[in-house]
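Checklist before submission:
- one chain only
- standard amino acids only
- sequence pasted in full

Submission:
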Amino acid sequence: MDSPATVPTGLLGKLVALGTTSSVGENELESWRRNPKLATVILSGLAQQRLPNIARQVLDLMLASRVESNVVHHNVAITACAKSGNWQLALCILCGMSDVSIVPNEITCSAAITACERGRQWQLALSLLDVMPEMGLIANVITYNAAISACGKGGQWQIALGILLALPEVRVTATEVTYSAAISACEKGGQWQLALCLLSIMPDSRVSANEVSYGAAVSACGKEGQWQLALSLLCEMPRAKLTANAICYNAGISACEKQGQWEMALALLSNMPEMKVAANVISCNAAISACEKG
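Returned file contents:
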C-alpha cells in the first residue's frame, strides 16, 4: 500500500489547491528550462498526491513552454496514474510519447501495467506485457508482479499461475511479492488448494513467505469453508517468524463466521490486543455476524 501523502507546500501546494497549472509562472518555467529535474520534483509530488490529471497538465505545459521533457518525466506522470488507477490516462501518456520523440523504457511499461492492474484491466495489462519485446524492452519481476496481480483481480487465476510458472523461462526470479500476488489470484478464484500449494513451495524456491502471503492463503481457505486450515495457518505464522496483522486476523475471523464458529471467532478477536493488533470495523462485524449465525 502506498504511503499517505503529506501536505504539499510551495508551487506543488498551489497546483494541488487550484487543480490547474495556472499557478506556474514564467519564473518557474525558466528554472525548469535550466534544470528539468525541478519539474520532476513537482511531478513526483503530484504522483504522491495521486493527481494524474494535473501531472498530465504539467507535461503539456512543459511542451508548450519549450521545457525539455524526457522519459523520466513521463514515467513519473504515468506513476501518478498508476497510484490512482487511472489506466486510461496512463495509456494516453504512453501512446503520446512517440509524438514528442521519447522512447519508453521498462519503467514506463511497468508503471502503465500497474495502472491497468489497479484499474482492473487485466487484458490491457497482458497486452502491454506482450508488446514489450517488440519495443526492445525486457520485462522485470516488477512488471510480471503487476501482470499477475492484474490477472488475479480479473478472476484469471489460471493465467496468473501460467505467468508465475513461465518466469524461469525468461530468467526472472520470483519474489515474495510474486508469490503473494499468485496466491491472492487463487484466493479470488476460489482455489484454496492451489493457494496452499504455492505457500508450501515458496521455501523450495528460496522465497520467504510474508504476512501478505499468509493473509491471502488464510482468506482462500476461509472463503471455501476451510476454517480449520485457516486457523492452522494463523498458528503457523509465529513459527515462520511472522506476526499476523489485522488483515490475517480478519481473514481468520471471517473464515469462522462463514461456518458459524462463533467461539473461535470471538477467541481470535480477543487475542488481537494481546498480539498488539488493533481490531477494526471488519474484525468486529465479522465476529458479530459469527455470533448471529451461531
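Reviewer check: The first helix runs from residue 10 to 18.
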